[in-house]
Amino acid sequence: MTHSLIVRSLILVGTLLLSSCSAPQETPPPELVRFGGMHEAIGLGQHGGRVLLSDLTSRPHFYGVGALQGLHGEITIDGSRAVVTSYSASGSLEALSPENRQATMLVGQSIENWSTQTIAEPIGADALDATMKRLVEKSGFPAVGPLVFVIEGEFRDVRLHVINGACPVHARMQKLEIPEEARPFELETPTITGKLVGIYAQDAVGKLTHPATSVHAHLIFEDEATGLEVTGHLERFGVAAGAVVHLPKAGGE
Fold first, then answer.
1. Over the stretch 124-153, which tens digit does the pLDDT of each residue have?
2. What is the pLDDT of residue 8?
3. Residue 55 belongs to what H/E stretch?
4. Which end of the chain, C or N, has fewer beta carbons within 10 A?
5. How many CA atoms lie within 13 A of 28 on its CB side?
6. pTM for this structure?
7. In 3D, which of 39, 59, 55 has the Cα closest to residue 47?
8. Do the strands 244-248 and 147-162 form a parallel or antiparallel pair, or are they unpaired?
9. Complete domains list, the chain, with CATH
10. How far apart are CA 220 and CA 236, in angstroms?
């Protein structure tokens, strides 16, 4: 091998090494646990039980969101602890024991290690998807997700529901009338404090998210009427400054 060829080879190797070092390294998302989907359970009415909640809460460090069998309530799993809420015929929210209950749809991940940051400026509801995309990319994960996230603090411009046999989002989109016995609990409030557990996922409409959003999020909060810890599905929300966002730490589930 001539001297010039050796030099060219060394330059090529060095360039490749520098490129590999400088290229951003994305961490694959943690394993996704999924049972059922929105289109199946809501669109097609296939809302029978698919998994016992005890099978999910037995997983270490598990976080997830879903709906009860028959679409008769909301499920939020926060660190392997299930918060289950239904809407009673008397018009009040009920905190249910997760024992022997099944989810018709549920999605989540087991996350032990988190990265944390405080929101410096308020996030408007219309800017939420774009903000979550930036935060996910900044954390070292692919922008498409899917990825569990948690937000603790104050939420603004909030609209949420507790499903009671029929999904109000689906009903509005399809211009369907919900029967009286299946009407959900619905809440609109300018501000509420609580803990959000959610899934960020692009291009997952009908599977993990409703149309026109990359976020499927539930809020754990205190019901003012009863003082009970309850949970609901967030249809729309913003995040106040000072709230704390937790995302999985890249490189460690």
1. 999 999 999 999 999 999 888 899 999 999
2. 52
3. helix 53-57
4. N
5. 3
6. 0.88
7. 39
8. antiparallel
9. 33-248 (3.30.1330.80)
10. 15
